[in-house]
From TrEMBL:
The keyword Signal applies. Residues 1-30 form the signal peptide. It comes from the Bacteria. This is Fibronectin type-III domain-containing protein. GO terms for molecular function: lysozyme activity. One of its GO terms (biological process) is peptidoglycan catabolic process. The lineage of its organism: Bacteria, Bacillati, Bacillota, Bacilli, Bacillales. It comes from Neobacillus cucumis. It holds the Pfam family fn3.
């Protein structure tokens, strides 16, 4: 998340600032006296992204072993990341715990109302972009940009961050984690240790020799550690930030005391398909206020009902349905159900004349039979029959098959009309493909 174009000049400049700070204050840099804990194989792995990563294949990301993800949602009071909604839907469809961060834009002179306004904007954008539960994992304040104009003191930066986090907490009933870099904390004299009660997501990249993050800002333990800004993960094009998290995803949730828990996973998720529709149903989940149903990664239903019929589908096609239960505190783990629609049955049509030649002035008996693909008679099928006589005149009739799947039509042959008669017949029936057949007969007198 740290500004890439700033890295080249930030560190030399800040080394001068740090030296000056040490000369003026008895407070020593914590990074010089201790380290935070190392990461182990038990720590969850995560990534953080923004629009710079473009379109992401979140299924590949999850399948690679990534256990959580954060995405930029907002900055200041006017900017919304254009990829946030897409990232949110993709990550959740893949079943990956997902959270949002706000890129802070403090400015001098210090104004707490600015921090409140950015906090309100952050919360509003989360709601407007489809994250009304404020994330599966706790919201984050990205604090890495020096004052846009003028200069803020370390106390003012800490106060700005405190106003922001307190405002977000009051609006969401969620803890707020602070993302920042060790260099930024040191620039602002460790924030005077005034933010150390908040969970920290520390940026300290291993390519700069950080095998463990330095203990800065009064923090001695990280909740998350961004250890690389040049990572590679399947499903993401180019570089992506890599992170360690806690050993349990619950430690990232950030629900405050007495907050209701996320909903239970929906149970008894079943489907009843037809050729062109699927009716899905499920049992109510504890603590759920609504449900979200996706088909092949696209939302097809959001609401409180526990039954839904998805229509307009292709026959004999497999669809993947994903169901989650939702409340203000987040959403359940998804439950997936592949469903294949039925193949529409075929009609099998046959038509005969009960003898090949007729005397003019007689009736020709034309017998149509309709069966399904398994050879069973189709009762009630609609039969459309036409007869074209040797002079080109056409007779058309319609009827229904009887319980034996048979429709009989007696066609009168005019006297002295000789030659070949062409018969065509088509049968149709609901939920069956239509079929056709043809035959000929002749008159001899």
């Amino acid at each position: 998340m740290i500004l890439k174009h700033a890295v080249k000049w930030i560190r030399p400049f800040f080394s001068v600032v740090l030296l000056f700070s040490v000369l003026l204050t008895s407070h020593s840099v914590a990074g010089a006296t201790g380290l935070m804990q190392p990461a182990t194989s038990a720590n969850l792995k995560g990534i953080d992204v923004s629009h710079w990563q473009g379109t992401i294949d979140w299924n590949q990301v999850k399948n690679s072993g990534i256990a959580f993800a954060y995405a930029k949602v907002s900055q200041g009071t006017t900017y919304t990341d254009p990829m946030f909604s897409t990232n949110l839907q993709g990550a959740r469809a893949a079943g990956l715990p997902f959270g949002a961060y706000h890129y802070a834009s403090p400015s001098a002179p210090y104004n707490p109302d600015q921090a409140k306004a950015e906090a309100q904007y952050f919360v509003d954008v989360m709601k407007n972009e489809g994250m009304g539960d404020f994330g599966d994992i706790m919201p984050v304040l990205d604090l890495e940009q020096p004052a846009a104009t003028g200069t803020l003191t370390s106390d003012e930066i800490a106060s700005w961050a405190r106003v922001f986090t307190d405002t977000v907490k009051s609006l969401t009933n969620r803890q707020v984690m602070v993302y920042t870099g060790d260099w930024f904390v040191e620039q602002y004299n460790d924030f005077g240790g005034k933010l150390s009660d908040l969970p920290v997501w520390i940026a300290a990249w291993t390519r700069y020799g950080n095998t463990q993050p330095p203990a800065v800002g009064g923090w001695t333990q990280w909740t998350a550690w961004q250890y690389s800004d040049q990572g590679s993960v399947p499903g993401v094009s180019g570089y992506v930030d890599l992170d360690y998290g806690p050993t349990s995803i619950d430690a990232l949730r950030g629900y405050l005391t007495n907050a209701p828990s996320v909903p239970a996973v929906p149970s008894n998720f079943t489907a009843n398909p037809t050729a062109n529709s699927v009716q899905v149903s499920w049992s109510p989940s504890a603590n759920a206020s609504s449900y979200q149903l996706q088909r092949n990664g696209n939302i097809v239903y959001q609401g409180t009902a526990t039954i839904f019929t998805d229509t307009g589908l292709l026959e004999n096609t497999t669809y993947s349905y994903t169901l989650t239960a939702v409340n203000d505190q987040g959403q359940s783990s998804p439950v997936n159900l592949p469903v294949t629609t039925q193949a529409t049955a075929q009609t099998v049509t046959n038509v005969i004349a009960d003898k090949s030649q007729y005397n003019s002035g007689n009736y020709a008996k034309l017998i149509t039979t309709a069966k399904d693909g398994n050879g069973n008679p189709l009762s009630g099928a609609t039969v459309a029959l036409t007869v074209k006589n040797p002079r080109g005149s056409i007779t058309s009739v319609t009827g229904k098959t009887d319980t034996n799947g048979t429709f009989t039509y007696n066609y009168f042959i005019s006297k002295n009309l000789r030659g070949t008669f062409n018969v065509t017949v088509t049968t149709t029936m609901a939920n069956y493909h239509s079929s056709s057949a043809s035959t000929t007969f002749s008159s001899v007198k």
